[in-house]
């Protein structure tokens, strides 16, 4: 099944960038998490799944050289990376239009900020089993304490996700921003076809999708769609259970062409089966809150949390970058100062009587004497002078911090 899929990774924040200014000079997908580029986590997920040999990495022109350098010189995995450029400001749906000639099969669309150790093949199996038009990965959030009442402002960024009793069919998808005071609207045609619907507000969209190849035709019919998450996917979900006459997409023609282009009788049968009343099938794979690691480093807070999680072994499958194998010069207290639940890059220098806990220290950082760090991320080339004391901070590449600049 996986050999039938084309993989597309969005290396820039195509549907919004909440990591600025960290992404001012660096693509989102190359930001370091536990001293590994974010992109390496998506590539590892695909590599572990097996069957993928080629991945299209989508970026803006200003980041093309840096990502091409990573693909050619720094990435040591088994996948062949093709870096493709889209216009600045293009959304994920716009990116898919630009790649139309490169995508000839069902395809995987992954945001460049995803870190997940959920076996990708489980998502692919769900897509194949139901011959789905779209399949979405959701992570259920931990239950809130009974005393912690959800307020209206807590709905910001929330999706209302309707699923069936099997927890595999995606029946409803609506953003809280599109609802009137939290009231959702469910179509009558869907309720006639599926009277039982569980509606959840605790499912986080991991931004890992599998789409049927024919979905690209929808983007031709809907040129104003810019986002796969906010426009294309909700459109497909809404169009389920409607008759062909009510679908503004060439369903019968598309599936007939699929059947004719596929050599096996099984593929033709699959295409023919989708021409009944159930024209569009949207599915989901839901990861329970206590199973697997799945998050998006899509904000300053979540980027920091991802660093802390990986450094302390919070993701069962993923590991922080290995400790550098290098000779430590006399007078460098790096080995004595950095705790085991931290990560460090090459050529890091640390002065005496310093303490670094639960932090990610990038390459070529110079840390003075008497420094105290906790829950911090230092990017490459950061200089901290003597007696600096910081916690819960991200320090950007090449920055220099003096004690006199720290306000307590």
**Residue share in helices?**
25-40%
Number of strands: 25
Biggest sheet record: 7 strands, mixed
Strand order of the largest sheet: 5-4-1-6-12-8-13
Principal-axis shape equals globular
Secondary structural class:
alpha/beta
* SS summary, helix count: 11
Fraction in beta strands: 15-25%
Which features characterize this protein?
alpha/beta, 11 helices
Description:
It is a single chain. It contains 11 helices and 25 strands. Helices cover 25% and strands 24% of the residues. The strands form 7 sheets. It has a 7-stranded mixed β-sheet, with helices on both faces. The protein has a 4-stranded parallel β-sheet with strand order 15-18-21-24. A 4-stranded parallel β-sheet has the order 16-19-22-25, with no helix packed on it. It is an alpha/beta fold and 408 residues long. The radius of gyration is 23 Å and the shape is globular.
